[in-house]
Amino acid sequence: MVAGTVTLRARWLGRVRYQDALALQRGLFASGGRYLLLLEHPHVYTMGVRADPAHVLVDPASVGAELVSADRGGDVTYHGPGQLVGYPIVDVPMGPDAIPSYVRSVEQLVIDVLADVGLPGAARLPGYPGVWIGERKICAIGVRVSRGRSMHGFALNVDPDLSYFSHIVPCGIPDKQVTSLAAEGVPASMKEVVDAMVARAGTLWGPDVDRQDAAILATSVRQRSTIDRSRTKVGEVGLELSARKPEWLRTKANMGPEFLELKRTMRSLDLVTVCEEAGCPNIFECWGDGTATFMINGERCTRACGFCLVDTRKPDALPDAMEPEHVAEAVARMGLAHAVITAVARDDLPDGGAAQFAACVVAVRARCPETSIELLIPDCKGEPDALDTVFASRPDVLNHNLETVLRLQRAVRPSASYARSLAVLARAKAAGLTTKSGIILGMGENEDEVAGAMADLRGVGVDILTLGQYLRP
Which residues are within 8 A (CB) of 214 and not within 5 positions of it... i.e. 6 or more apart? Predict the structure, then answer.
């Protein structure tokens, strides 16, 4: 890093749902940092603020796509696999012609990248924004600039399924075609395009660049998946399990009276703790001190994170309606000044278990009004309504763990998403909550990656961060 410069944090995020990317953008927009988010979206049509609904020619659901409104300029456009979407979140010097000048700079960035990967001749088309090959659009551009900061950006067609554009009037232009690198005969991989984009963006918005990538970029535009679905090979990410913990690191089992009393409380109220279900090696120390983390919504999790020992069989029951009252009773018996409530992920439930979190807050507040409450929540599949249910309960601390660095996300928690976790935290911060997150160390990350993850958490306004050493269950 260069002293005294503002770092451009370039992030290849892989496949990200549009609503998660938008929440993440908004969080980073508010922070003042300099970011370039690079990603692909699942099939989605987005409507700009001036879009004509008549330009959507089919029911998006009939072709497996979402339809969302976006607070950007322009008409309707398509995003999907094989298309590189870039969201520059940077300061834009304001003044006469500021926004057109910024748009031209983004267009030139894409033109230069196309030349770098083997497609010279890309240019602007007078009267039409974006980047063109003759009269064929290869890159759509739609931005929003507010208070001297940019959001949204560009969508460069590497090798998407171009038939999806036939279901709309792309960008509201009925008499122009859409093309891609592949359609123009350039077999550039997504990785090659991302590499070229980051290099050029560093010149435009750098020069100091912190780049981090999610897992493995696809090596061919014909390979639709951006992530190696066979997970990762030992040695590429993570650390091989080669030996037992050293004796000095192993926790001794000490089931003294405090431990046994807490266990009796949990069993008498039919409560579950993450301490037990996750096989935490610190359980004897924590329970001996009279602290435990309540785990609601059952003991079976619909995720399968590699670091966790919680049961991943299919959940066989709905959340217990009496569980919130039992949690409140346990808090009262233990005389807790601060209660931590977490849960298994329940992707089988429409709200991801959000209502049970809210009910627990209500019950604990009614029974123990002086107790502060921390909720450690799963991502609830990123669904805004579910998250709003949790946020509306107004916990004193809203905790959602990022767990690990961007590169290791797929290996460590294959059913979760780095971008979605940041989006959850950004939404919580926007709701006015005190936010908290945690990173586990010791799973193969390096120092620069940890610093980058910390910067990303700060970028979405996280107030409290814990760094913990991973101890295998």
Answer: 11, 12, 13, 14, 226, 227, 406, 407, 409, 410, 418
Q: For residue range 324-342, list pLDDT tens digits in order.
A: 999 999 999 888 889 999 9
For 383, counting Cβ atoms within 10 Å of its Cβ (0-12 exposed, 13-18 middle, 19+ buried), the class is: middle
Residues in the chain: 473
Report strand pairing: 338-343 vs 372-376.
parallel
303/261 same-domain check: yes
Which CATH number goes with the domain that contains 377? 3.20.20.70
- Write out the residue range of the structural domain in which residue 253 sits: 247-469
DSSP 319: P
pLDDT digits (tens, 9 = 90+) for 10-24: 999 999 999 999 999
Strands 149-157, 83-89: parallel, antiparallel or unpaired by DSSP? antiparallel
- Cβ-Cβ contacts under 8 Å for 100 (sequence gap 6 or more): none
Which residues lie below 8 Å from residue 188, measured CB to CB, with a gap of 6+? 117, 118, 119, 158, 181, 221
Contact between 231 and 414 under an 8 Å Cβ cutoff? The reply is yes
| CA 470 to centroid of chain Cα atoms | 22
Per-residue model confidence (pLDDT) at position 121: 94
Considering the domain boundaries, does residue 428 fall inside one?
yes
According to DSSP, the residues that pair with 168 across neighbouring strands are: 56
* CA dihedral of 439, 440, 441, 445, whole degrees rounded to 10: -70
Segment 97-107 shows an average pLDDT of 95
Domain count, the chain: 2
Strands (DSSP E) along 32-114, which ranges?
34-40, 44-47, 66-69, 76-79, 83-89
Of 459, 461, 465, nearest in space to 37 by CA: 459
Backbone angles phi, psi at 85, to 5 degrees: -100, 135
Where does residue 441 rank: exposed (0-12), middle (13-18), buried (19+ CB within 10 A)? middle
- 467 forms beta bridges with 439
Looking up tokens 């959000």, which residue turns up? 354
How far apart are alpha carbons 473 and 438 in whole angstroms?
18
Prediction pTM value: 0.89
CATH number at residue 52: 3.30.930.10
Three-class SS state of 211 = strand
- Containing 154, the helix (H) or strand (E) segment is strand 149-157
User: In what helix (H) or strand (E) does residue 266 lie, and over which residues does it extend?
Assistant: helix 257-268
Residues 6 or more apart in contact with residue 195 via CB below 8 angstroms: none
